[in-house]
Amino acid sequence: MDRLPRLALAAALTALVLTGGETGSSPGASAATTTVDEVTYAFGSDRTEVVVSWRGAATTLFWGPDDSYGSQVTATPSAITPVDIVGPFSEARLSGLSAGTTYHFKIGPDGVDRVLHTAPSNAQDFTAVVIADTEATICRTYQSQMFGLVAAIDADFLVHHGDLAIANECGEPAVHQFFLDMEATLANGAAFQPMWGNHEYGNPTADAPRGTPRDTLANYKGRVAMPNAQTVPNDKATQISHPGCGQETNSRTNTCMGEDWGWFRAGRVLFIGYPEPEPGAIADWQKKADVLMADAQQNDTVDFVVTYGHRPVASSTSYTPPTGWVTAFDALAAKYSPTARTDGKYVVSFAGHRHTLEVFANRKGVTQVVNGGGGQGLIKFGATVSGSTWRQKHLGFSTLRYSASQRTLTLNVICGPAHPAQVGTCTPGSALYTRTFSAT
Questions:
Q1: Can you spell out the DSSP letters for 20-89?
Q2: Reduced to 3 states, what is the DSSP secondary structure of residue 261?
Q3: pLDDT tens across 128-167, in order?
Q4: Looking at the predicted structure, is the pLDDT value of residue 30 above 80?
């Protein structure tokens, strides 16, 4: 896929982030800001759509195959309103695009030129970064290095599976800063595909700055679109605490209903997110994921199925999976993994939550990766849980590289920055663990 020079564009956008955005007032202004910042985009319902999200008063997005644009669309206010900082927050859905294609866009007539890439077509290679348990750069001294390692991958998209900013520990400004961090980290035009973790609605910790409120999913659901968005059973109109919102603004109705998990296609790979352990959520997800996997199993244009979410099935860190987790994931693996059937396509699942790197290489045929070293910290290992085949107490993240010509999917666990609590050393950016899956 075509690229602008990544480092030059990243440097330009980093400068914009450091100076407060493209135009206008500071992020902390009491009135609606004219600054355009927090610019990210996510894949839409299929590979012909993307949804661009941003903060700022500009409402017109200009787009086209090059920087002469040629088309424009008027944004709509985000259906969910973040409450941590003044907006407005907007999104623009671009439809009728070509898969695996680079487009230019700018926000407002005087906006900076940016690029986006629609989801890769069946015939294209791609690289994805998979990460979880990060923090904003104002929270950890090494987080800037971590995001620098992510940017250097030059990925087509980033899958983040929960605990993004840790604002309930770092302080409310961390949410805004995290989305500024993502704007700079993904300045090569990579899509941002998150799922939610427990810290997206966490109570303030004992170490949080005085006055830090409980975080709310409105701050995250309101900043990025979820492809093929699904709603868990208890995310109802009357649910004003997670997975809903409203209690933080004294609303009597849910202000962030929906967008609890979703799924998308990239190349010949189906990615299925999974939700937090709300009442009935995992059983409901299992039924819907079963339908998606069954369809993928019969679809000749799908080679692999990948799941990603926050809570793991297993970890060697004195951890007990949520009720129903083992049953749901093992049942799907028993139907769709390469062990269950010679043409099985469900090959890998990513989880975070436990701040370590660990691989369970063959849990009923699925490789379960605990990918929780994104920068929040580290948790010590206990006794090795049965089935664990590799582990390291170190910061890090993962990549997935798909080869269309070879029809292979290669997992790499990547060494991150040094951390005082780590065990063992590695070169940041180097591969610590590799496994390649081949389509039958």
A1: TSSSSS-TT-SSPP---EEEEEEE-SSTT-EEEEEESS--EEEEESSTT--EEEE-EE-SS---SS---E
A2: strand
A3: 999 999 999 999 999 999 999 999 999 999 999 999 999 9
A4: no
Can you spell out the DSSP letters for 183-236? HHHTTTT-EEEEE--GGGGPPPPTTSPTTPPPP-THHHHTTSPPTT-B--TT--
Listed residue (416, 335, 440, 408) closest to 152, CA to CA: 416
How high is the pLDDT of residue 22?
Answer: 58
H or E element, residue 245: none
Of 109, 20, 25, 101, the C-alpha closest to 60 is 109
Q: Compute the distance between CA of residue 312 and CA of residue 329 in angstroms, rounded to an integer.
A: 10
CATH of 122-438, one of 3.60.21.10, 3.40.50.2020, 3.40.50.1860, 3.30.70.370: 3.60.21.10
> In one letter, which amino acid is 86?
V
* Residue at 316: amino acid letter: S
Which residues share a beta bridge with 425? Answer: none
Task: Find out whether 180 and 13 touch, Cβ atoms under 8 Å.
Answer: no
In angstroms, how far is CA 250 from the centroid of its own chain? 29
pLDDT 10s digits, 53-67: 999 999 999 999 999
The DSSP secondary-structure symbol of 111 reads P
Q: Which residues fall within 8 angstroms of residue 99, CB to CB, at 6 or more apart?
A: 47, 48, 118, 119, 120, 121
What are the distances in angstroms from CA 326 to CA 90, 122, 211, 312, 377? 39, 32, 38, 9, 26
Q: How far apart are CA 66 and CA 60, in angstroms?
A: 17
* Domain ranges across the chain: 122-438
> What's the pTM?
0.93
Cβ–Cβ < 8 Å for 105, 180: no
Res 31: pLDDT: 59
